[in-house]
Structure formats: structure tokens, C-alpha cells
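Protein data sheet
==================
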Amino acid sequence: MAEELPGPGAAPPPGSPAASPPGPAAAASLPGSTVAGLPGSSSGGFAGGLTGRLTGLVAALRAHGLRIGPGETVDAAAALEALGVADRERVREGLAAALLHQESQRTVFDPVFDLYFPLGVGGPDGADGRDRESGSEADRQALRERLVAALAADDQALLGQLAGEAVDGFGGYGSSSAGSDGWSSYQTLSRLRPETLLARVLAALRAGPAGQDTGEAAFTDRLEADEIRRRIEGFRERVRTEARRRVAERRGTEEIARRAVATTAERVDFLLAGRAHLDELRRAVHPLARKLATRLAARRRRAAHGSIDLRRTLRGSLSTGGVPMRPVLRRRRPARPELVLLCDVSGSVAGFANFTMLLVQALHDQFSKVRVFAFVNRIDEVTDLVAHGAADPAGLGGRIIGEATVTGWHGSSDYGTSLGEFAERYLDAVGPRSTVFVLGDARTNMSDPNLPALRAIAGRARQVYWLNPEQRAQWSTGDSAADAYAELVDMHECRNARQLSGLVARLLPI
């Protein structure tokens, strides 16, 4: 039978360390301890016992980019000592409170926690995928019937049990004599198809007492449908968690925590980011802008004194026998720089360009002037659209495509034509105080890259930087002209929001 950690509200086992309040010696005995009620505490592959689980959890979270220092780790150990392990959900929330800094980090923390502090060990009834045939159609229908009842009753304990049975019965693959070679949540959910049970669960709920009028019933139906969808998605996540746990027992927790858990949105490649990641990045624009504004202000303060004025320093040294005791610094003229953005808004790079435009718009107070231009194979100024886009960042890309003239007779990107049109129509937007950022993958679809146009822009600007969302190894492969453009301007790899924030803090003019 799968060994289980007691759920919320369960009493600790008699004689366990959690049965009495933790004393002063509890922290000293934490390393190497094995804890009653915690699955695998003595045989789950964690040499350090409970301490090994905690340090492994912290290491896995750090590998996903979460900033967790020694102080947070000590706080987590103290929380674990105070909470014990009798209530797994209390342990989850306590460690999250000690280790995390943002609510968005829960998307990484929760699946990693489930690997290091699992609900059970092995398969249902100790099956572990051995001596069983692949789930039959009758088994599938029986499980779906039980799932309908569990979803209608919102029975969390039964839903957890059914997730384990589903993975064990329908998720195994391979032909190992010792059981399955592995378990797949995708295969399990594809065969079980819980999303098709919505109507049956609603019918089970409506079988209860009636008496509502038509208007109230319609409103209640919509609420119930949303609630059932939430419960179904919760069950799907339980299946994913169970499949990860079973695979981790065979392949190692560290490897699965590193490979099978989605990373934070700021570390996801712009070219691979889905709608959920892009929505999270848009929500992070203003906090990130405040952090970058602070860094820019610090750089501005450090640079305020300027370089040494050699002539005035030597003149002043005459009073000290020619020894320059008091260096005289040149005074910087207080003038904020200008910023010009040229953004490719075609295809998969649109998410990268939109996020960068919103970030620069949030930083507009740091510059005397910001002008933004968008292009696919035609170029048009979209400064006003970006300024108004702060109210509805999700719709910025659609408004640019719909209201600006960024395409001609086809929809493929053409850097040569776009750069040439900018040099003809908008070159006066670039001056000796202007820093130009070009955002795009430099893929020209086999058209002329028009290097003279980029050379003309670089000749007028204070500095030109190109931010490329592709890996450096892919530059100048296929139809990319990245290496040719990189000979004229500074090109930087910028694949995710983490790299972007570092580049913006380092490259933006002060």
C-alpha cells in the first residue's frame, strides 16, 4: 500500500516527533533524522533525512532561478521544526512563506515541493506498475464513473486516490519485466479525458433539490460550470504531480525537479513563451521598471562627477608643489538621453517586442524623448499606441497590427526594406544624443539585408544596440543576417526577461 503523509487536520501518529511541541533540542536533532509519517524518510534516497529533503528542495528552486539565500534556508528549517510533518499542507505553506518572495513563484515551488515531500511512495496498493495488464476499456469507464462522483462531491482525498490509480493503470509505458519503464501524464489524461465529464458532473449536481426560478438557475448553472472546470483542472494537475513523483522514484528526484518542472516566466525563452507566460511577464513590467529605474539612478549618481579635468588639476597643483593633491573633475551637463526603438512585430518575435516596448514605456521618465517604430516589411511610428498601451498591455500587439502600417503586400518580415524606409522617412528621429535599440531575430526571408541603411542609422546615433531573441548558435543560419548586422552594430543575445533586464540596466544610456 502506498505510504501516505497525513492530510490537513490529521492527528500525528502516537509517539512521533510531531505528537508533542518541538523542544530546544529538535533543531539539533534535525540533520539525518527520519520522521514518522513522511514517505521515504528513511528509504527515499535522501541521505540527510528531513534535512536532505529541505536542502534538496532549496537547491532545486535555486536551479530554477529563485533567489534563496542562507537566511531563507535557516528560516525554512525553523518553520519545519515548528510545524512538524503531521500536516503536509501546513508544511507546504510554511516553507513557501519562508522561501518565496513573490506569489508568481508558487508555480515553480508547488511541483518541486511535491517531489521532495511527496504524498506517498510507490503505486496504489503497492502495485508500482507490476503484474498488471494495460487498463481495459471497462477499467477506464469504471474509473470515469468514480471520477464523476468524486468531482461532484469535491472529495479531495478520493480525487488524489483516483489520480494515482489513473497513472498506474493508464500512464505506464515500455516493456520492462519489473513493470513500466516510466509514466506519462499526457498518456493518462489522453485516455481518461476528464474534460469530457463536465456535463455528467453538472447532471449529478443538478440531481439535488430544485426550486430556483429560471433566471437564478441560469446564473447558478454558469457558476457551477466554472467550478467544475476548476475541479477538473485540479484533477489534471494531480495526475501530472503523480506521474512526476513516480518517475522521480525511478530516475532520481533531482533530475526530474530540473527537467520536468516548468521554470519561472522570466527564464522562459520569448520565442517559446505561451500566453500564460506572456501574461505573467506583462504583469511584471512595472515592478521590473521600478527596479531598473533605481539601477539607472545609481549609475547616474556615480557618473555625475565626470572624468578628471587634467588642465584644472595641474593648475591647482601649483599651490602644493606640483603634487595633484586635489583632483578636479569635469562637471557633467545634466541632460537626459533620447531613446529610439525599432521593433520587429512579426510572428513569434512579437511577444518579445511587445514586452520590451511596454518596459521602455514604463521607463519613459528616465529619458528626454522616447520614439517607438514597429515593422514587419513596412515601418511606422507607434509611439502613441505604446503610450496608451499601458492601460491594456495584452491588446498592444493587436492594435499595432490593426492601426499601424507595418505590412505591405505580404506578411513576412523584411528587414532590408524596413530599415531602408526608416532611413528615408524617419532618419531625423536619430541624433547625437540618441541611443537606438533594434529588436528582432534578423531573419530576412532571403531578401536584401540593406546594410547601408543600418550603417546610415549607426552613423547618426550615439550608439546602436541590436537585441536578438535567438540563441547565438542560430545566428546566420538559414535566412538570418545576424552576423552581417553584428559587424555594424553591437548585437546581444536576449532570449528571456532575465537577460533583457540585465541588458537594459547595463546598456541604457544615462
